[in-house]
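Feature request disguised as a bug report, sorry. It would help if multi-protein outputs had a clear separator. Right now it looks like this:
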Amino acid sequence: MRSGFLVIDKDQDFTSHDVVALARKSLKEKRIGHAGTLDPMATGVLVLGVGHATRLLSFITDGSKTYLAKIRLGSATNTDDAQGEIISVAQPEKIATITDLQITDELAKRTGDILQRPSSVSAIKVDGVRSYKRVRDGEAVELEARPVHISSQKILKISRADDFVDVEIEVTCSAGTYIRAIARDLGDVLNVGGHLTQLRRTHVGTFTIDNSITSTELKNGKEPKVMQLVDAVRSLFRVREINDDEEIAIFHGRAIDENSENVNSGRHAAINSVGEVIAILEPRDGRLHPSIVFPRDAAK
């Protein structure tokens, strides 16, 4: 079984599920999943785990992400993005009063640790039913705010027309942050409405657009290059080089000693003397305990 990661540059109008299906067909491998959904409207980095690498997808999903986004101020939609129905439009006179400084200040206020209310058209479940399905069935849904971390919001460009203002930003944020909600909240606080018109993800943790393949190329039969498991874990975790005795202990589910310089230093990837990934190790009580152990055919 081939194990590792694919970095897809997802094109617009492909769902994340579409991309997974294309990869399964191309690689003739059923065990493929993705790290963090991208809406059909969005483009950019979608990381796929192949084979045993699917066991590491949660570590990637939980990492930081960077986006390029375009926010349109002056109108709001029922989905907080351009694919929804317009539900309010501000008067041009009101839009003309918005200054660049106001936009900058309001985005700055929403940087750091904040409480963000997710878009109602999201996959979050409410009493077992996904929020977006409730909205499509005609229900009015308002989700509870939840903590997220926005590391930075950099304004790249502000463009003006008579009936709208477009704000292009670069956002680096934690998992669980909704860029649509940033657009909605900026429009709300400026009292003109706002929604997302473009979104491109450029980073997921350590994965970038570099050496990616587009979803269209994948659909057209281009063979994707799978990043080997060992190369990926070296970028994701600290590395603990292990000897033969430690390798045997790990395969039997036993903890090993931490190196003195690595005490309480976090999660590690155990790599043996011939460069094979053996396990993911978690520190506890001064020792490294195996939390994921890879079968030998997945080690390289």
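(second protein starts here, but nothing in the output says so)
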Amino acid sequence: MFIDRFRSYLQFEKRYSAHTVSAYVTDLQRYHTYLANHGLTDADADHRDVRSYFADLIEAGQSPSSVNRHISALRTYYKFLNREELIHNNPMPKVRVLKTPKKLPVVINEEKLISLLDSRELFPEGFEGLRDLLVLEFLFGTGARRAELVSIEEKDVDLYNKTVRVLGKRNKERLIPLNRSLLLLLKEYLEEKKAQPFENKTSFLIVTNSGKQAYPDLVYLIVKKYLSLITSQQKKSPHVLRHTFATSMLNHGAELNDIKELLGHAGLAATQIYTHNTVERLKLIYKQAHPKA
């Protein structure tokens, strides 16, 4: 098979994120297991075989969005094989993506979140508490993705110009302004981090209790721990803070195109979903305030 070459293609030519590369490779390995069990290869499989594979995924309980990611992975894979002239068939044009229900972004109540961030007594004293608070403040204050946060280095933070440089998907850079409370917290955290007796100093901004670069699951656990103090909703992930950032910006008058730039979206289509939350909020206000509602 050609998985290693495909992985390099995704990393260095397509410049996909590490998360996407890992997901595509995992999907491809599962597909190859299916082919092997049916005595097939990439070159043998036609659209009927591929459809049968996706039917198996659905029967196994995969959601439509997960199956669609498999479809995307295989489309990219077969295009790569054809481009490299490794095989000459492509079964994917006859495969259609599944319809998925539109889901509104899940957000945290803004007042409760700000109250949490202003309650320093809820965070442990010393380095760990500062680190945890910074993770929450940074995600809500910048709208950064979890993978972006753990990749930020100290040199990316410009305290003088009050900005942070973020490397997003496909290595696209963007500058995000730092609000006053986040700026003050960053200064305090960097001083505390510098004073820690870590054996191996690292240039990454967010680190573990032992001073190593923070890993994505650590950020997830931190966010889930503290959001559990203010909400009982099921989703308490770092991405919820990204959604909350965008929705709050829109509710307070920011232009959609500006939010797009701050989030690092390639186009407006991905950003427009936040307008639905704002419409729902306006409906609620109307219902509460209008005498004939």
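Even a blank line would do. Unrelated, but nice: The CA atoms of residues 135 and 290 lie 40 Å apart.
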